[in-house]
Protein backbone atom coordinates (compact mmCIF):
# COMPACT_ATOMS: atom_id res chain seq x y z
CA UNK A 1 0.00 0.00 0.00
CA UNK A 2 1.27 3.52 -0.82
CA UNK A 3 1.98 5.81 2.12
CA UNK A 4 -0.95 8.21 1.60
CA UNK A 5 -2.15 10.27 4.58
CA UNK A 6 -5.32 8.13 4.82
CA UNK A 7 -5.40 5.35 2.24
CA UNK A 8 -2.46 3.39 3.62
CA UNK A 9 -1.89 0.08 5.42
CA UNK A 10 -3.31 1.48 8.66
CA UNK A 11 -6.69 2.10 6.97
CA UNK A 12 -6.59 -1.44 5.57
CA UNK A 13 -5.89 -2.89 9.04
CA UNK A 14 -8.65 -0.78 10.55
CA UNK A 15 -11.22 -1.81 7.93
CA UNK A 16 -10.30 -5.49 8.29
CA UNK A 17 -10.62 -5.29 12.08
CA UNK A 18 -14.08 -3.71 11.72
CA UNK A 19 -15.07 -6.41 9.24
CA UNK A 20 -13.98 -8.98 11.81
CA UNK A 21 -16.18 -7.37 14.45
CA UNK A 22 -19.22 -6.98 12.17
CA UNK A 23 -19.07 -10.66 11.21
CA UNK A 24 -17.89 -12.28 14.44
CA UNK A 25 -19.50 -10.20 17.18
CA UNK A 26 -22.83 -10.60 15.39
CA UNK A 27 -22.14 -14.33 14.90
CA UNK A 28 -22.99 -14.00 11.20
CA UNK A 29 -19.66 -15.74 10.64
CA UNK A 30 -21.17 -18.91 12.11
CA UNK A 31 -23.68 -18.94 9.27
CA UNK A 32 -21.16 -18.43 6.49
CA UNK A 33 -19.34 -21.08 4.55
CA UNK A 34 -15.59 -21.05 5.32
CA UNK A 35 -14.88 -19.95 1.75
CA UNK A 36 -17.26 -17.01 2.20
CA UNK A 37 -15.64 -15.95 5.46
CA UNK A 38 -12.18 -16.19 3.92
CA UNK A 39 -13.32 -14.11 0.91
CA UNK A 40 -14.85 -11.51 3.25
CA UNK A 41 -11.51 -10.93 4.99
CA UNK A 42 -9.47 -10.97 1.78
CA UNK A 43 -11.98 -8.52 0.26
CA UNK A 44 -11.43 -6.19 3.23
CA UNK A 45 -7.64 -6.52 3.06
CA UNK A 46 -7.55 -5.92 -0.71
CA UNK A 47 -10.30 -3.31 -1.07
CA UNK A 48 -7.91 -0.34 -1.54
CA UNK A 49 -4.86 -2.03 -3.07
CA UNK A 50 -2.43 0.46 -4.62
CA UNK A 51 -4.70 3.43 -3.83
CA UNK A 52 -3.13 6.58 -5.32
CA UNK A 53 -4.66 8.91 -2.68
CA UNK A 54 -6.69 10.78 -5.31
CA UNK A 55 -10.41 10.14 -5.88
CA UNK A 56 -12.34 8.80 -8.86
CA UNK A 57 -13.45 12.36 -9.57
CA UNK A 58 -9.81 13.40 -9.88
CA UNK A 59 -9.02 10.38 -12.07
CA UNK A 60 -11.88 11.21 -14.43
CA UNK A 61 -11.26 14.97 -14.50
CA UNK A 62 -7.62 14.38 -15.32
CA UNK A 63 -8.39 11.48 -17.67
CA UNK A 64 -5.62 9.52 -15.95
CA UNK A 65 -4.42 6.15 -17.15
CA UNK A 66 -6.84 4.48 -14.71
CA UNK A 67 -9.80 6.57 -15.91
CA UNK A 68 -9.03 5.68 -19.53
CA UNK A 69 -8.43 2.02 -18.73
CA UNK A 70 -11.85 1.59 -17.09
CA UNK A 71 -13.69 4.19 -19.17
CA UNK A 72 -14.43 6.29 -16.10
CA UNK A 73 -16.45 3.50 -14.44
CA UNK A 74 -15.26 3.12 -10.80
CA UNK A 75 -11.63 3.37 -11.96
CA UNK A 76 -10.12 3.05 -8.48
CA UNK A 77 -12.24 0.09 -7.41
CA UNK A 78 -11.59 -1.75 -10.68
CA UNK A 79 -7.88 -1.10 -10.17
CA UNK A 80 -7.97 -2.48 -6.58
CA UNK A 81 -9.77 -5.53 -7.92
CA UNK A 82 -7.26 -6.06 -10.72
CA UNK A 83 -4.43 -5.77 -8.19
CA UNK A 84 -6.11 -8.48 -6.08
CA UNK A 85 -6.49 -10.74 -9.13
CA UNK A 86 -2.81 -10.24 -10.01
CA UNK A 87 -1.65 -10.96 -6.46
CA UNK A 88 -3.91 -14.01 -6.16
CA UNK A 89 -2.41 -15.37 -9.37
CA UNK A 90 1.17 -14.50 -8.41
CA UNK A 91 0.94 -16.29 -5.04
CA UNK A 92 -1.45 -19.01 -6.18
CA UNK A 93 -3.86 -17.96 -3.44
CA UNK A 94 -6.65 -20.22 -4.63
CA UNK A 95 -4.51 -23.02 -5.96
CA UNK A 96 -5.51 -25.50 -3.28
CA UNK A 97 -9.26 -25.21 -3.57
CA UNK A 98 -11.80 -26.55 -6.02
CA UNK A 99 -12.71 -24.43 -9.09
CA UNK A 100 -16.29 -23.86 -7.91
CA UNK A 101 -15.04 -22.60 -4.57
CA UNK A 102 -12.43 -20.39 -6.23
CA UNK A 103 -15.16 -18.91 -8.43
CA UNK A 104 -17.32 -18.25 -5.37
CA UNK A 105 -14.36 -16.62 -3.61
CA UNK A 106 -13.68 -14.29 -6.58
CA UNK A 107 -17.38 -13.45 -6.95
CA UNK A 108 -17.59 -12.27 -3.33
CA UNK A 109 -14.35 -10.26 -3.45
CA UNK A 110 -15.46 -8.62 -6.73
CA UNK A 111 -18.89 -7.58 -5.44
CA UNK A 112 -17.45 -6.34 -2.15
CA UNK A 113 -14.71 -4.19 -3.67
CA UNK A 114 -16.88 -2.64 -6.40
CA UNK A 115 -19.53 -1.80 -3.79
CA UNK A 116 -17.05 0.48 -1.96
CA UNK A 117 -17.38 3.10 -4.72
CA UNK A 118 -19.59 5.71 -3.05
CA UNK A 119 -21.05 6.50 -6.50
CA UNK A 120 -22.87 3.15 -6.14
CA UNK A 121 -24.01 3.87 -2.57
CA UNK A 122 -27.50 5.23 -3.22
CA UNK A 123 -28.45 2.39 -5.54
CA UNK A 124 -27.20 -0.24 -3.09
CA UNK A 125 -29.09 1.36 -0.20
CA UNK A 126 -32.28 1.44 -2.30
CA UNK A 127 -31.84 -2.23 -3.17
CA UNK A 128 -31.37 -3.49 0.40
CA UNK A 129 -34.07 -1.16 1.79
CA UNK A 130 -36.56 -2.50 -0.77
CA UNK A 131 -35.57 -6.09 0.05
CA UNK A 132 -36.06 -5.55 3.78
CA UNK A 133 -39.60 -4.24 3.26
CA UNK A 134 -40.47 -7.81 2.27
CA UNK A 135 -41.00 -9.52 5.64
CA UNK A 136 -40.05 -12.86 4.15
CA UNK A 137 -36.68 -11.63 2.87
CA UNK A 138 -33.90 -13.72 4.42
CA UNK A 139 -30.49 -12.09 3.77
CA UNK A 140 -28.73 -15.42 4.32
CA UNK A 141 -31.05 -17.61 2.29
CA UNK A 142 -28.89 -17.69 -0.83
CA UNK A 143 -25.63 -16.51 -2.32
CA UNK A 144 -27.15 -13.31 -3.74
CA UNK A 145 -28.22 -12.28 -0.23
CA UNK A 146 -24.86 -13.25 1.28
CA UNK A 147 -23.03 -11.19 -1.35
CA UNK A 148 -25.18 -8.18 -0.54
CA UNK A 149 -24.68 -8.62 3.21
CA UNK A 150 -20.89 -8.87 2.84
CA UNK A 151 -20.78 -5.85 0.51
CA UNK A 152 -22.67 -3.80 3.08
CA UNK A 153 -20.44 -5.07 5.90
CA UNK A 154 -17.37 -3.90 3.94
CA UNK A 155 -19.00 -0.54 3.16
CA UNK A 156 -19.71 -0.09 6.89
CA UNK A 157 -16.12 -1.05 7.72
CA UNK A 158 -14.74 1.30 5.08
CA UNK A 159 -16.39 4.33 6.70
CA UNK A 160 -16.24 3.10 10.31
CA UNK A 161 -13.86 5.78 11.61
CA UNK A 162 -16.67 7.60 13.40
CA UNK A 163 -17.77 4.36 15.08
CA UNK A 164 -14.56 4.47 17.12
CA UNK A 165 -14.25 6.23 20.47
CA UNK A 166 -14.09 9.99 20.17
CA UNK A 167 -10.32 10.43 20.45
CA UNK A 168 -9.67 7.77 17.81
CA UNK A 169 -12.44 9.10 15.51
CA UNK A 170 -10.85 12.54 15.67
CA UNK A 171 -7.43 11.27 14.69
CA UNK A 172 -8.92 9.49 11.68
CA UNK A 173 -10.63 12.74 10.66
CA UNK A 174 -7.29 14.56 10.73
CA UNK A 175 -5.74 12.22 8.16
CA UNK A 176 -8.91 11.92 6.03
CA UNK A 177 -9.03 15.68 5.59
CA UNK A 178 -5.27 15.90 5.04
CA UNK A 179 -5.78 13.69 1.99
CA UNK A 180 -8.98 15.48 0.90
CA UNK A 181 -7.36 18.93 1.15
CA UNK A 182 -4.30 17.81 -0.82
CA UNK A 183 -6.62 16.88 -3.69
CA UNK A 184 -8.47 20.20 -3.32
CA UNK A 185 -5.14 22.04 -3.54
CA UNK A 186 -4.36 20.22 -6.79
CA UNK A 187 -7.80 21.13 -8.20
CA UNK A 188 -7.24 24.76 -7.26
CA UNK A 189 -3.85 24.75 -8.95
CA UNK A 190 -5.49 23.35 -12.07
CA UNK A 191 -8.07 26.15 -12.02
CA UNK A 192 -10.96 23.80 -11.28
CA UNK A 193 -13.72 24.33 -8.73
CA UNK A 194 -12.77 22.75 -5.38
CA UNK A 195 -15.28 20.33 -3.84
CA UNK A 196 -16.59 21.69 -0.50
CA UNK A 197 -15.17 18.79 1.57
CA UNK A 198 -11.78 19.23 -0.11
CA UNK A 199 -11.54 22.98 0.37
CA UNK A 200 -9.21 23.72 3.28
CA UNK A 201 -10.16 27.41 3.12
CA UNK A 202 -13.86 26.92 3.83
CA UNK A 203 -14.62 23.38 5.12
CA UNK A 204 -15.68 23.07 8.76
CA UNK A 205 -14.71 19.57 9.90
CA UNK A 206 -17.23 19.59 12.76
CA UNK A 207 -20.08 20.51 10.42
CA UNK A 208 -18.94 18.05 7.75
CA UNK A 209 -18.66 15.26 10.32
CA UNK A 210 -22.21 15.83 11.59
CA UNK A 211 -23.52 15.60 8.02
CA UNK A 212 -21.40 12.57 7.17
CA UNK A 213 -22.56 10.66 10.26
CA UNK A 214 -26.21 11.71 9.93
CA UNK A 215 -26.69 11.09 6.21
CA UNK A 216 -24.17 8.38 5.32
CA UNK A 217 -22.62 6.44 8.21
CA UNK A 218 -25.61 6.09 10.51
CA UNK A 219 -28.14 5.02 7.82
CA UNK A 220 -25.61 2.45 6.60
CA UNK A 221 -24.97 0.98 10.06
CA UNK A 222 -28.73 1.09 10.73
CA UNK A 223 -29.29 -1.00 7.59
CA UNK A 224 -26.65 -3.49 8.76
CA UNK A 225 -28.35 -3.64 12.18
CA UNK A 226 -31.68 -4.25 10.42
CA UNK A 227 -30.13 -7.05 8.38
CA UNK A 228 -28.78 -8.63 11.58
CA UNK A 229 -32.21 -8.35 13.23
CA UNK A 230 -33.84 -9.98 10.21
CA UNK A 231 -31.29 -12.79 10.30
CA UNK A 232 -31.95 -13.25 14.03
CA UNK A 233 -35.73 -13.29 13.48
CA UNK A 234 -35.48 -15.93 10.77
CA UNK A 235 -32.74 -17.96 12.41
CA UNK A 236 -34.28 -20.89 14.24
CA UNK A 237 -31.00 -21.48 16.07
CA UNK A 238 -31.09 -17.85 17.33
CA UNK A 239 -27.44 -17.50 16.47
CA UNK A 240 -27.20 -14.05 14.87
CA UNK A 241 -27.08 -11.12 17.28
CA UNK A 242 -27.53 -7.44 16.30
CA UNK A 243 -26.39 -5.92 19.60
CA UNK A 244 -22.78 -5.25 18.60
CA UNK A 245 -24.06 -3.14 15.68
CA UNK A 246 -26.48 -1.32 17.96
CA UNK A 247 -23.45 -0.50 20.09
CA UNK A 248 -21.88 1.08 16.98
CA UNK A 249 -25.02 3.21 16.53
CA UNK A 250 -24.70 4.37 20.12
CA UNK A 251 -21.11 5.51 19.53
CA UNK A 252 -22.14 7.29 16.31
CA UNK A 253 -24.81 9.26 18.15
CA UNK A 254 -22.32 10.11 20.87
CA UNK A 255 -19.68 11.33 18.41
CA UNK A 256 -22.24 13.25 16.34
CA UNK A 257 -23.34 15.05 19.51
CA UNK A 258 -19.73 15.97 20.27
CA UNK A 259 -19.22 17.44 16.78
CA UNK A 260 -22.45 19.40 17.20
CA UNK A 261 -21.24 20.63 20.58
CA UNK A 262 -17.95 21.74 19.03
CA UNK A 263 -19.84 23.40 16.19
CA UNK A 264 -21.90 25.36 18.70
CA UNK A 265 -18.88 26.32 20.76
CA UNK A 266 -19.83 24.00 23.61
CA UNK A 267 -17.36 22.09 25.76
CA UNK A 268 -16.84 18.40 25.13
CA UNK A 269 -15.17 17.79 28.47
CA UNK A 270 -16.80 15.83 31.27
CA UNK A 271 -18.33 13.31 28.95
CA UNK A 272 -16.76 10.30 30.66
CA UNK A 273 -20.22 9.33 31.91
CA UNK A 274 -21.18 8.57 28.33
CA UNK A 275 -18.24 6.22 28.01
CA UNK A 276 -19.25 4.50 31.25
CA UNK A 277 -22.68 3.96 29.71
CA UNK A 278 -20.97 2.53 26.67
CA UNK A 279 -18.88 0.17 28.81
CA UNK A 280 -22.04 -0.98 30.59
CA UNK A 281 -23.67 -1.64 27.21
CA UNK A 282 -20.64 -3.65 26.13
CA UNK A 283 -20.90 -5.74 29.31
CA UNK A 284 -24.53 -6.52 28.46
CA UNK A 285 -23.50 -7.78 25.05
CA UNK A 286 -21.37 -10.34 26.85
CA UNK A 287 -19.36 -12.77 24.80
CA UNK A 288 -20.73 -11.23 21.59
CA UNK A 289 -19.35 -7.83 22.55
CA UNK A 290 -16.07 -7.99 20.69
CA UNK A 291 -16.60 -4.40 19.51
CA UNK A 292 -15.81 -2.81 22.87
CA UNK A 293 -12.52 -4.56 23.68
CA UNK A 294 -11.43 -4.14 20.09
CA UNK A 295 -12.09 -0.41 20.31
CA UNK A 296 -9.83 -0.30 23.36
CA UNK A 297 -7.15 -2.20 21.48
CA UNK A 298 -7.44 0.14 18.51
CA UNK A 299 -7.16 3.08 20.89
CA UNK A 300 -4.05 1.53 22.41
CA UNK A 301 -2.17 0.82 19.21
CA UNK A 302 -3.34 3.64 17.00
CA UNK A 303 -0.39 5.83 17.94
CA UNK A 304 2.12 3.02 17.54
CA UNK A 305 2.61 -0.18 15.63
CA UNK A 306 -0.38 -2.01 14.13
CA UNK A 307 -1.43 -5.16 15.99
CA UNK A 308 -0.46 -8.67 15.12
CA UNK A 309 -3.76 -9.36 13.39
CA UNK A 310 -3.58 -13.12 13.63
CA UNK A 311 -2.71 -13.18 17.32
CA UNK A 312 -5.11 -10.48 18.44
CA UNK A 313 -8.10 -11.18 16.26
CA UNK A 314 -8.04 -14.36 14.27
CA UNK A 315 -6.96 -16.13 17.45
CA UNK A 316 -10.33 -15.21 18.94
CA UNK A 317 -12.45 -16.70 16.17
CA UNK A 318 -14.50 -19.44 17.74
CA UNK A 319 -15.84 -21.16 14.67
CA UNK A 320 -13.87 -23.85 12.88
CA UNK A 321 -13.59 -21.40 9.98
CA UNK A 322 -10.69 -19.82 11.86
CA UNK A 323 -8.71 -23.01 11.65
CA UNK A 324 -9.64 -23.35 8.00
CA UNK A 325 -8.54 -19.80 7.35
CA UNK A 326 -5.27 -19.73 9.21
CA UNK A 327 -3.96 -23.22 8.68
CA UNK A 328 -5.61 -24.76 5.69
CA UNK A 329 -6.88 -22.53 2.93
CA UNK A 330 -3.69 -20.56 2.46
CA UNK A 331 -1.26 -23.36 3.23
CA UNK A 332 0.48 -25.40 0.58
CA UNK A 333 -0.18 -28.43 2.76
CA UNK A 334 -3.88 -27.63 2.67
CA UNK A 335 -6.28 -30.29 3.80
CA UNK A 336 -8.90 -31.16 1.23
CA UNK A 337 -11.59 -28.49 1.07
CA UNK A 338 -14.20 -31.17 0.55
CA UNK A 339 -13.13 -32.87 3.77
CA UNK A 340 -13.29 -29.60 5.64
CA UNK A 341 -16.70 -28.70 4.25
CA UNK A 342 -18.06 -32.14 5.00
CA UNK A 343 -17.44 -31.54 8.69
CA UNK A 344 -19.68 -28.47 8.56
CA UNK A 345 -22.28 -29.43 6.03
CA UNK A 346 -24.98 -30.39 8.52
CA UNK A 347 -25.14 -26.78 9.69
CA UNK A 348 -24.55 -24.84 6.51
CA UNK A 349 -25.84 -24.16 3.05
CA UNK A 350 -24.51 -26.08 0.09
CA UNK A 351 -22.50 -24.08 -2.40
CA UNK A 352 -23.43 -24.13 -6.06
CA UNK A 353 -21.44 -26.73 -7.94
CA UNK A 354 -20.90 -24.70 -11.12
ZN1 LIG B 1 -11.09 2.00 2.01
UniProtKB/TrEMBL annotation:
Q: Which PROSITE patterns match?
A: PDEASE_I_2
Domain PDEase per the UniProt entry, residue ranges: 1-266
Please verify whether the record's keywords include Metal-binding.
yes
Q: Which molecular function terms from Gene Ontology are attached?
A: 3',5'-cyclic-nucleotide phosphodiesterase activity; metal ion binding
Q: Which domain of life is it from?
A: Eukaryota
Residues that coordinate or bind Zn(2+) 2: 48
GO terms for biological process, alphabetical: signal transduction
> Which residues are responsible for catalysis?
7 (proton donor)
Protein name listed in UniProt: Putative 3'5'-cyclic nucleotide phosphodiesterase
Gene name for this UniProt entry: PDE11
Amino acid sequence: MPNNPYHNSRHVTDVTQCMYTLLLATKVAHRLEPIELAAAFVGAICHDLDHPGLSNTWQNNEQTELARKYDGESPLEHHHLDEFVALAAKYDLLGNIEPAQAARFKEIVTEMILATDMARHAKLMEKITASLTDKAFDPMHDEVGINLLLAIALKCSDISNQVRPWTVANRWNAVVYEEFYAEGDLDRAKGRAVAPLQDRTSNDVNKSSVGFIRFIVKPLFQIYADIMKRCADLDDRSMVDSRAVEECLYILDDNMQRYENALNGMDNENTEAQFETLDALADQVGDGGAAAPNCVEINHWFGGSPPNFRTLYLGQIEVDSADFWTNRLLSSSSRSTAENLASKRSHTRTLKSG
